[in-house]
Specification:
Elements lengths: L33 E6 L17 E6 L9 E10 L3 E2 L1 H7 L1 E2 L3 E5 L3 H14 L11 E5 L14 H9 L18 E2 L2 E2 L1 E9 L5 E9 L8 E2 L2 E2 H5 L12 E7 L5 H17 L9 E8 L23 H21 L3 E2 L5 E2 L7 H4 L6
Parallel strand pairs: 6-7, 14-15
Antiparallel strand pairs: 1-2, 2-6, 3-5, 3-15, 4-7, 8-9, 10-11, 11-14, 12-13, 16-17
Helix pairs in contact: 2-3, 5-6
Length: 359
């Protein structure tokens, strides 16, 4: 149900980016991190003339794969709160993340949350223990028939069970199926950076890009509206973004909060002002392990010195910006709910903006 990706990515098209990506240029470059996505196909019960109204899905990020449910240190950050991120309050309070980060559309947050709870219990999570899954959302109702509620628990379970490392499909897939970003077709995007000193460490970012007002977009410093004309500035802002940041660097929750805030700088680099109607949420987690405590009450943890964090901050800004642009160049023009149409990013114009770009 989730299609593969054949289109060149932003970097492959000649858009200049600073920093060195990992082998996949994806959040899955962080050891242990896996991603699962399901794009919902219309069921036979949907009338043929409305099947293109079904434009939704789910995306999951598991910090330590499916076989290891040990919590990781984590921190959330809200830049503008017109949206929902379940489980964020306890993540803030405890400094930890247990289980997956799951992304979906606004109207199916409850369904996804309940599905994650039942999935975890089927895998041995005690039914007597409380659970606060982390679920983020963006509204996909311009291209998706949200009232149809086509996403099911089976879809969520399939995404969780199918999560894997390696390349990550981008654009109109999973939770990004109906996303709109800067007035163009948006969706899922990802990128990573290798940090050598301190390190070597990996840092990866995955975004659900459904944000930004037309006319705001900047690509490597190029103001897109100057090339696309004044009509690009006339439409309203479309929605929100969720940014998931992973690293294997040993960071404590207060340091991860600092990393999460830098994701906002990457968002701003692409042009967003985080408008009043936007829900802009960031989650940063570290997969670094604590030393075994042998059952003692005190655990031993490692942390980077604060004076060594700047390379990770820089990697976060770079990878967030590139992940957003990867989402844009991967997504193609889409017709959806009530025949609403959103054009894909004009990749054919890149050769005018960057002489080294390719189509």
């Amino acid at each position: 149900m989730t299609k593969g990706q054949a289109r060149p990515r932003a970097r492959e098209r000649g858009i200049p980016f600073a920093g060195t990506p990992g082998p996949w240029n994806a959040i899955t470059d962080v050891p242990g991190v896996v991603v699962g996505q399901i794009t919902v196909d219309p069921s036979p019960e949907v009338p043929p003339e409305r099947r293109h109204w079904v434009r939704t899905g789910v995306t999951v990020v598991l910090p330590r794969a499916r076989s290891d449910a040990a919590p990781v240190m984590a921190a959330p950050f809200t830049l503008n709160g017109n949206g929902e991120l379940t489980g964020a309050a306890w993540m803030e309070e405890s400094g930890g993340l247990e289980g997956p980060v799951t992304l979906t559309n606004t109207d199916t947050v409850g369904l996804v949350r309940d599905s994650v709870i039942r999935w975890a219990r089927d895998r041995g999570h005690s039914p007597d223990r409380w659970s606060l899954p982390v679920v983020g959302e963006t509204w996909d109702g311009f291209l998706n028939d949200v009232a149809g509620r086509y996403l099911t628990e089976a879809h969520v379970r399939a995404a969780l069970d199918g999560a894997r490392d390696g390349p990550v499909a981008e654009g109109s897939v999973g939770a990004g199926t109906a996303c709109v970003s800067y007035g163009y077709k948006g969706g899922i995007g990802t990128s990573s950076r290798t940090v050598e000193d301190p390190g070597p460490y990996r840092l990866g970012v995955l975004v659900q890009a459904n944000h930004g007002r037309p006319g705001q977009l900047r690509v490597a410093g190029v103001d897109v509206a100057e090339h696309e004309g004044p009509s690009a500035r006339s439409r309203p802002e479309t929605g929100s973004i969720v940014v998931v940041i992973a690293t294997d660097a040993p960071l404590l929750p207060h340091q991860l909060k600092r990393v999460a805030r830098r994701g906002a700088l990457g968002l701003g680099r692409s042009g967003s002002i985080s408008g009043n109607g936007s829900g802009d949420f960031f989650i940063a987690f570290s997969t670094a392990r604590s030393e075994p405590s042998d059952g003692a009450a005190v655990s031993r943890v490692a942390m980077l010195d604060n004076d060594r964090l700047d390379p990770l901050f820089e990697a976060t800004v770079q990878a967030t910006d590139e992940a957003i642009l990867n989402a844009l160049v991967a997504a193609e023009t889409m017709v959806g709910y009530r025949d609403h149409k959103v054009e894909g990013f004009p990749v054919d114009r890149l050769s005018e903006w960057f002489p080294s770009s390719v189509r």
